[in-house]
Amino acid sequence: AGQRKAEAFCHSSDRILIYIGLWAMGKCCRQGTIAILREFIMKGTKDQRMIMAYTNRSQWDRYECRYLAEQMLGGGEGEIDLELTAAYWRSFCLGLAEYRNYRKIWKEGDDGFPEKVFLYYFDTKDKAMEKVNFLHRLLEEMPAKEVKFQPCIFPWYSEKITVSGIWKQLCLLAHMLEDEELADEVLEHLGEIRKSANMGSRADYAELLLRNPTGKKQVDKLVSLLADKESDTRKKAAELLEGQVLEDVHYGLLEGYLRLKNGEIRRLALEFLKGQQPERIASSVERLIASEDRRMQKGGLDLALETVKEETAEPQLKEKLRQLVSRIEEPEENEKIL
Q1: Residue 154 pairs with which residues in a beta bridge?
Q2: Are 138 and 168 in contact (CB under 8 A)?
Q3: CA 91 → CA 118, 207, 265, 293, 297, distances in Å?
Q4: The most confident of 86-95, 209-218, 260-269, by mean pLDDT
Q5: Which of 81, 160, 177, 334 lies at 20 to 30 Å from 145 by C-alpha?
Q6: What is the pTM of this model?
């Protein structure tokens, strides 16, 4: 009798009764609950599907929770219901910490895990690509950087979707699928990613895709991130660039960063400019002090001073730098000290 009453509540038009019905079904009959949830996915009303999202988010089984959300939202080519998507968004998303932990176990070679990382999350690659396609469609339909529904489902509850969150999901999928085309797309939009409490910062996603840069395009991106707005991202880019072979175009960008006021960006740029061959350091100093931009002139002076202070610097280079610095006309007081 209790199960029949719970089923009747589940098919009510009142959201509170639907919620009570699902809660009661979960207590007395797991199989019956699964059958009702499948019914909601196939032909449920908007109210039933929204309440299913509210109950789904509290499941202990993260895989089952995400699977139901993907079943509800995935597939199809019609217009996306943003409110329904927001209701399921937290259940739908892959977790950064969870993925990192799985990657660690996978690398250690545990026999209980599949050969390909994505098979831990999806039955087939096609299923993973369905998620990628849905996220691309969602990006196209986002009317703003953030869409928030308050209230959502109940008067006391709210949910939101952000463009930043969508790109984070695409980044995780690009990495697990080893999809270079998708990874390049995410890197082009890395600036869209914002820091959040549960899903990490831009630096985390930069590290995920650029840990071992495989070509010039990725090294280009790391150099550009040295001037990123977020300090964590700049520091991570500097860490990942250690040991990479930089080209003239990269050093040209680094010289350009000395136009900026930000002290950390200037310091990082100088550190990498100091790593050039001696004749190239002299060329950098010459270009910088010849600039009409006072900050770049100051950067040239800083580069010359730090190089001269190096015990390993060759005497010929030190003398060349002193000659270049002497070309500055009407130096300001702080420049005279340098």
Answers
A1: 152
A2: no
A3: 18, 25, 38, 52, 53
A4: 260-269
A5: 177
A6: 0.87
